[in-house]
Amino acid sequence: MAFVGTKIEGDIAILTMNRPGKRNAISDAFLADLEAAFSGLGDNVRAAVPTGAGGHFCAGLDLAEHVE
Questions:
Q1: Rounded to whole angstroms, how far apart are CA atoms 56 and 42?
Q2: What local confidence, expressed as pLDDT, does residue 64 receive?
């Protein structure tokens, strides 16, 4: 499952965080997807706009993943 969707409009990339069930909280897999999304943008993109799916931008760190 991809946690970050990418849509390119001209020279602007729209990166949509897609973990609505977790209010787009950041996990290790989420960070890997975000890094891959940025790495794949190419040289034509001049700006990236982050947004969140499901009515939330980002709840921050997914504390359920960090038990220590």
A1: 27
A2: 87
Only one residue has tokens 């969707």, namely: 5
- The pTM score is 0.84
Integer CA distances (angstroms), 32 to 1, 9, 18, 46, 54, in order: 12, 23, 13, 22, 21
2, 39 contact by CB (below 8 A): no
| Residue 16, both tokens | 């949509």
Facing residues of 14 across strands?
7, 49
For residues 44 and 12, give the distance between their C-alpha atoms in angstroms, rounded to a whole number: 9
